[in-house]
Amino acid sequence: MPPPETRERILDSAEELFAERGIGETSLRALTRHARVNLAAVHYHFGSKEGLLDAVVERLATPINTARCRALDRLDQSAHTDAPTILWAFFQPVIARMEALERLGRTATLARLLARIESQPRAEVARLFERHFGDASRRCVEALAHALPELDRTVVAERFHFANGVLMALFSDRPGFEAHRGDTPVPRRDLPARAREAIAFATAGLCARSACSSLPMLVPATRPPSSAPDHGPDGTRIEVDSR
Amino acid sequence: MPPPETRERILDSAEELFAERGIGETSLRALTRHARVNLAAVHYHFGSKEGLLDAVVERLATPINTARCRALDRLDQSAHTDAPTILWAFFQPVIARMEALERLGRTATLARLLARIESQPRAEVARLFERHFGDASRRCVEALAHALPELDRTVVAERFHFANGVLMALFSDRPGFEAHRGDTPVPRRDLPARAREAIAFATAGLCARSACSSLPMLVPATRPPSSAPDHGPDGTRIEVDSR
DNA sequence: GGGGCAATCAAACGTCCGTTTGAAACGGAC
DNA sequence: GTCCGTTTCAAACGGACGTTTGATTGCCCC
């Protein structure tokens, strides 16, 4: 391979370790050791640790985002413009990528990395997400709003946001939430089955009739059921001077 | 106040800073400075930084978990055992807590902290989540399986997992996904309205008829839509030796 | 008023961090 | 062969990290 082998190895290790251990928890020394690359190579190729993170996200998100846009393009000039199909066009590229990662034995990489990134300082994460996912997301909301004219656009955007939450849940296999039958855990289904289930779930939520009104009102019951005073005994305290 | 003022101040600052900046990115020096407390106090009260994280999660999760269990208890000996009510019992305590936090101006604390924690090393996060959320989650799945006898228990567990994803999405206000009308962003609705919307979404998903079969099959279309070879042109490459 | 214990404090411990440096290795152009 | 731009390398930089220490404070019981 010509020159770029080192660069790619750094990106591979960064993607894996940032996702697995966290960004702040992953030192460049451990990273370069993992990639079998000289420490200074990171700064030579990416300028800084933050530049490396940016490159990692770019390499991960760009193909997904362009695939999404391409699929939405195809839908724009097609007869199938119902909400489930649009949602599918948005979900499919990332599910496909996830399956590819799972085949490599790196199941949770995608979700964890996104979770890591989402929990960066505010401005930075806004920049990153907007740059790498903004296009497709806005286009998808637009298409959905057109396909669901009975819903207010704000509601469509909110539900789209929730659908993304379902997608994140599909990525993550948070332990402890598995099915149980008595004491013995029920084995999980494979990824395609779970992905189908996620799509069904998100589709139903997206096309739901309206915000539930038959449920107990939210606002009056909004206090925690514990008999807590205005600031709970454990943690709800109003902070005094937390500059 | 008797003795425990320092302890609480540390917990308050830790909750805020861990969520805002990240766990690895928050130094104990910055934390104790923020709490106006001596550096060594952390180790005196919590033993280590990890012990502090554990205490933070405990203080945050315990009231939520017990409120959930109490609500599920009440449902067990009641006539209202339909799925939406059960889901509501599970969602309400954490939504209430979120509203309390928002009233303190700390909107995203809960979501970010959970996202941070979820992206810790594997065994640790499993331990944490199981300890602090396991009870109520298992009980909720059980109640839902009883309320939805037409669904396989595995499916119920999966959908419950997705519902949790919706809840996480409600917590997080990920930027860039807001509603737009042309160029001007549509202002967000307030939290109770969004919470109702989330419940409606999750309820519809939970009670959906079955995993969609009318959608394009997942498995054959599982490759990215780009005409990419086995490793895509930009990032989908199968890594050679990323050990 | 003095012993005893929990809590706080300033200071230091050794380690690891992200980053920089300057020299060495490489490869094609002339 | 020699130059030159690109890439790799070992070594070091100052600083910040989590943790430990040992002295000091405040307070209750006797």
The gist of it:
2 copies of one chain form a homodimer. Chain A is an all-alpha fold and 243 residues long.
Quickly count the helices of chain A. 9
Termini separation of chain A comes to 52 Å
SSE pattern of chain A, N- to C-terminal: HHHHHHHHEEH
Unreliable residue stretches of chain A: 216-243
- The total of beta strands of chain A comes to 2
Reported for the largest beta sheet of chain A, the result is: 2 strands, antiparallel
Spatial strand arrangement across the major sheet of chain A? 1-2
Query: Largest interface by residue count?
Result: A-B, 122 and 125 residues
Rg of chain A, alpha carbons: 22 Å
Structural class of chain A: mainly alpha
Specify the helix fraction band of chain A: 55-70%
What's the rounded overall pLDDT mean of chain A?
A: 76
Percentage of residues in strands of chain A? under 5%
Give the CA-based shape of chain A: elongated
In terms of quaternary structure, the protein is homodimer
Could you outline the blueprint of secondary structure elements for this entry?
The structure is a homodimer of 243-residue chains.
Chain A: H1 5-21, H2 28-35, H3 41-46, H4 49-76, H5 83-103, H6 109-118, H7 122-147, H8 153-171, E1 180-181, E2 184-185, H9 191-206
Antiparallel strand pairs in A: 1-2
Helix pairs in contact in A: 1-2, 1-4, 1-6, 4-5, 4-7, 5-7, 5-9, 6-8, 7-8, 8-9
The structure holds a DNA duplex (30 and 30 nucleotides).
